[in-house]
Write a structure and sequence with these properties.
The protein has 18 helices and 5 strands. With 566 residues, the chain is mainly alpha-helical. Strand 2 and strand 3 form a beta hairpin.
Length: 566
């Protein structure tokens, strides 16, 4: 609508759009149908995008165009047996009511604390909040010890009971939706091969029913993923709660008084953990209610396709699951050598293969474009085509080869099909192509658009140590004293004379050779045995005693016998 009203001032354009939406709501209310402004706005865009309605996006809407637009929107909104309308209603409801983990706030956020307090000083607000958390922690500790804490629900036990029950319910609903989608796919696959059968089944709106069921399946998978994450968080928080309570018991024990600096931080941590349990409880409740409120948007299936009609349509057909379809062509992979310009990604060559954002929510682009909207799951194992920084999967190798020959042609066909069925814009994630806002339910996947493949391959490189000739001067010296030393050395060489001599041994030198006998072992034996004895030293000093004077004179006498005398 922004292009339609491009010639008007912004305020006037917004006023015209609001009037159109208001008029649509009033017309529907007159027929007993309550329509939200969000749904009416979505329907206006869907009707304008559909080329069969004849609206020109490049000119301003006339009064007759506005009347026609309102009439078409009201007609589509009052069609109670149209699966396409049910899908759009489901998308709008999910977008308005889905709450992710990141958006969930505390049960008592700090923004509401200011309305509770009469004082406006931040310090007092902070102190009151800390006091509340400490009191909460004390009550939780008393409850664990069995000495108080009445009126506090056992949130961990409630969550441990609610999460498996909710998961089981969603699993059963998901299985039912997938089985129904497989049946529609089997019928439409046969219709695509038989044009005559296509004319007979056109009034049944099988494709619209398939889109409705696939969208329901997608929403259930989003909810189930959040609940699984919730279960993991609860399990971790239960361990933390037990550890905090045990630490508090060890700190307090049987003491009559404990310093507040030791216990208050633990009380605050207990309060924060309990607040997290409350958040998880609210999240589980929201997701459970959201699942329940999505089921009414499937009512057209029972009206259009009773079990008897489905059995007649499925007579002689083989219903295949998505997993079975992938296994059929698991080994039939794309050969990259057949393509020079296109880039193909495979699990063994791409590190983040599972994290790539596949276009059209993983459905085969070629099949959807050539069969007027049949949704068949693509098989990433065959190979993922990278085209203009986007990634495409296919259900067979032949489909991949044909799409790779002319990607733009098939992308345009898919875009034109989405204009006729507006519910495909969200189902196949085509928001960027239609310049509209991304739904809140898909905000957490925005970062995936920037994920680039990390390819892996075996490679080796070799470089020369020095590509250019070396420019290092080994003779360069920066030390002044070293330069002086060399200068003195050169100066001294000028006063030297070179002499040469030749000796008789070096004159007419020639090679000589000699011959020797190898050594041999030899032994000798003496004639007799003999031994010697070292004489014992004997020294006598005379005059050491018996003298009459004050001075003693000693005489040293060597009495040791000679060696030859022993």
């Amino acid at each position: 609508m922004s292009r339609v009203s491009a010639r008007m001032p912004p305020t006037q354009a917004e006023s015209v759009i609001k009037n159109i939406i208001r008029e649509i709501g009033q017309e529907c209310a007159a027929h007993g149908e309550t329509v939200s402004e969000t749904l009416a706005a979505f329907m206006v865009k869907a009707v304008v995008l559909d080329p069969s309605n004849g609206f020109n996006m490049d000119r301003t809407l006339m009064k007759s165009d506005v009347q026609k637009l309102v009439k078409l929107c009201v007609s589509r909104l009052l069609d109670s047996k149209n699966p396409s309308l049910d899908t759009i209603k489901m998308q709008v409801y999910f977008d308005m009511n889905y709450t992710s983990r990141a958006a969930l706030q505390s049960i008592f956020p700090q923004a509401e604390l200011g309305t509770f307090l009469t004082l406006s000083k931040k310090d007092k607000e902070r102190q009151l909040k800390e006091l509340t958390m400490v009191v909460t922690g004390i009550r939780l500790f008393n409850r664990d010890c069995g000495k108080g804490g009445e009126g506090i629900d056992d949130l961990p036990a409630i969550l441990q009971e609610a999460i498996p029950a909710t998961t089981q319910h969603i699993d059963s609903q998901l299985q039912i939706a997938q089985d129904q989608a497989y049946r529609y796919t089997a019928i439409l696959e046969t219709v695509a091969k038989n044009p005559l059968l296509s004319m007979e089944l056109q009034p049944y709106m099988l494709k619209e029913a398939l889109y409705n069921m696939r969208q329901y399946e997608t929403f259930l998978q989003i909810i189930l993923s959040d609940i699984i994450t919730c279960a993991q968080e609860v399990e971790m928080m239960i361990k933390q709660l037990g550890a905090q309570l045990e630490q508090l018991k060890m700190t307090v024990k049987s003491k009559t008084a404990v310093p507040t600096s030791q216990v208050f931080p633990i009380f605050i941590a207990l309060s924060n953990l309990w607040t997290s349990f409350q958040d998880e409880t609210v999240l589980i409740s929201v997701l459970s209610n959201l699942t329940t409120h999505l089921e009414p948007f499937l009512g057209a299936h029972e009206l259009l396709f009773p079990e008897k009609v489905m059995q007649n349509l499925l007579d002689g057909l083989t219903v295949k699951t998505d997993v079975c379809r992938m296994k059929e062509h698991m080994e039939d992979r794309v050969r990259p050598v057949d393509f020079r310009k296109q880039e193909w990604l495979f699990p063994e060559t791409t590190a983040n293969f599972d994290k790539l954002l596949i276009q059209y929510r993983g459905f085969c682009a070629y099949t959807f474009a050539t069969t007027d909207g049949l949704l068949l799951p693509g098989n990433p194992a065959i190979g993922i085509l990278k085209y203009k920084e986007k990634y495409y999967t296919f259900n067979t190798r032949d489909a991949a080869y044909l799409f790779a020959e002319s990607p733009e042609n098939y992308i345009d066909l898919i875009k034109e099909k989405a204009k006729k069925n507006a519910e495909l814009i969200q189902l196949l994630e085509l928001h960027q192509q239609f310049e509209t806002l991304i739904p809140y339910s898909q905000m957490k996947d925005v970062d995936k658009h920037h994920i680039k493949p990390i390819t892996k391959c075996e490679s080796s490189t070799q470089t020369d140590t020095h590509i250019l000739p070396p420019t290092i001067m080994r003779s360069y010296e920066w030390n002044e004293w070293e330069l002086r030393r060399k200068a003195i050395k050169l100066a001294n060489l000028r006063r030297k004379v070179t002499h040469s001599v030749q000796t008789d041994l070096s004159h007419m030198r020639r090679e000589n050779c000699s011959q020797v006998y190898p050594p041999k072992d030899a032994s000798t034996q003496s004639m007799r045995e003999s031994s010697t004895r070292v004489p014992r030293p004997q020294i006598y000093i005379a005059g050491l005693r018996g003298g009459q004077g004050k001075i003693t004179y000693g005489v040293k006498v060597n009495l040791t016998r000679a060696v030859d005398e022993t």
